[in-house]
Amino acid sequence: MEKINITIAADGTVDLQLAGFEGGKCKEATKALEQLLGNEIIDRTLTSEFYLTEEIEQEEKISSS
Asked: Is the model's pTM score more than 0.70?
């Protein structure tokens, strides 16, 4: 299940934590939110889920060669 947890601190900083998104889908899911908030992205930490789809695609390319 895909989830987005949004935390807005007293100083106005926004923290988005995502779960259940594979590959670059997390960036697609937050793109509109980032634009609406208009905040500069200070830090982006990618979880192992981000790399999951890319690893599978690479394995498929190697296998089919």
From this structure: no
